[in-house]
């Protein structure tokens, strides 16, 4: 696709959704395509990791439902850090229900995700009504949605025609759907012709990224930033344990790992846009 050689900054104008624009602007300004996934269960550790990686990331990805001592002051502190370090927030909620239910899950409950998360995501499995449901809450707030068109795990069922149909669903809701959680581009999954039109500059955010190991004991599979950004044409690398490792208390180590992944991701991107 022609977007592979455009800079993140040039691509801002391809988007009308405020969350998509914000993310691309941050990537261009901070020169980073790294998102850190902060999958820890204690508020204190969660905030310490985010403060440590903040300078190196365009986006912080959360699973807010794993925090044991959650209260709304945590959200305020997360928002303060997002202003301090200039990153967007992505709650990796993976909605998967009927439109009416997901609208309630997104707006209400303990976490009130739509009120603070710039970006969230959904499984396309229920069909287009999941997008209308989430959009009824998120669009008026300027939020953006990613569809899960592929997964990083061994044996994932989101392949072939499922992935192609996810892209078609996204194209029918271009105002709210800003891109995909996926492992490759639309061309990479074999879509061509009418299915890949030039104004469809979807963002591709990719989990399953690691430099030191190939996977974990529970089906996760890792590829390198170079494979993801340069060879597969994705836009954002999402890294969790590769950065905060086994000891989330070691701030200096976390900072060094974040810098290492940021540099690897940016180098792969520069090679891509100049190819
Ligand atoms: P890791 O520690 O880098 O393996 O964490 C990966 C994160 O990305 C974790 O929060 C997962 O829930 C998330 N993830 C994923 O790993 N693979 C996928 O296909 C999707 C999400 Br979708």
Give your account of this protein's structure.
The protein has 275 residues and is an alpha/beta fold. It has helices spanning 8-11, 18-30, 43-53, 72-85, 99-107, 129-138, 161-171, 225-231, 241-244, 251-273, and strands at residues 34-38, 59-62, 88-95, 119-122, 144-148, 177-181, 203-206, 236-239. Strands 1-2-3-4-5-6-7-8 form an eight-stranded parallel beta barrel, surrounded by seven helices. The longest helix has 23 residues, at 251-273. The protein is globular and about 50 Å long. The two termini are 13 Å apart. 5-bromo-uridine-5'-monophosphate binds at residues 37, 39, 63, 92, 148, 151-153, 181, 207-208, 220, 238-242.
Gist?
By secondary structure, the chain is an alpha/beta fold. It has helices at residues 8-11, 18-30, 43-53, 72-85, 99-107, 129-138, 161-171, 225-231, 241-244, 251-273; strands spanning 34-38, 59-62, 88-95, 119-122, 144-148, 177-181, 203-206, 236-239. Helices cover 39% and strands 14% of the residues.
